[in-house]
Amino acid sequence: MIFSEKLVHGRLIKRYKRFLADVELDDGTEVTAHCTNSGTMKSCLEDGAEVYLTPVNDPKRRTKFTWEMIKINGDWVGINTNNPNKIAFEAVRDNQIPELSGYDTVKREVKFGDSRFDVMAQKEGETCFIEVKNVTMKVGEAALFPDAVTTRGRKHLNTLMEVKKQGMRAVMLYIIQRVDVDRFGPADDIDPEYGKALREAYREGVEIIPMQAEVTPEGIELVRKLEFEL
């Protein structure tokens, strides 16, 4: 995924009210940016850290910037939760993930029952529903999800199990927007019910694919699949 706008550099002053972040730009101007990440952002928040923002030219928006990434311990961490869906769609469409290659049709935001999955891919004789999650939390050398209790996430896992029962392929795709981790797992200390649901889904045939992405001010690129521990 390539950023369509040139990003604006600054330093984080503070994040507050979940969806807002004050940033000092390089010219000394203080601006408020929209933070798409509603979680705790544990392990990817540091006052004074370098950040990049996307300028937004929308008269209806109160905030004129969207917060894209933050530099933690020398590496960029992507915190925009809207980007993983775009990354996943492009990756499946362009056959960038070996386990999800070879599909003729790839669509975004496809409804199944009372849920809506991020990606649906089809080829002759096979339909695959893919749910995408953004991962930013680091504990030790592992990337963990979620960083806050998520009833919505558990619902998606239950629906993926229903997809599998109906004879279709069901995939849980985690986009890990940091390169300083080497494996993936559920954050049982934060949401043990999600971890329980993920293990059940895996036993029922739902596939787990954790993909690590390198984040830069120019774009975000998938670099490798990580091992996972349940």
UniProtKB/TrEMBL annotation:
State the gene name recorded for this protein: sfsA
InterPro entries hit by this protein: SfsA, SfsA_C, SfsA_N
The family line of this record is: Belongs to the SfsA family.
Q: What is this protein called?
A: Sugar fermentation stimulation protein homolog
Domain (SfsA N-terminal OB) ranges: 13-79
Transmembrane intervals: none
> Under the GO molecular function aspect, what terms does this record hold?
DNA binding
- Start and end of every Sugar fermentation stimulation protein C-terminal domain? 83-218
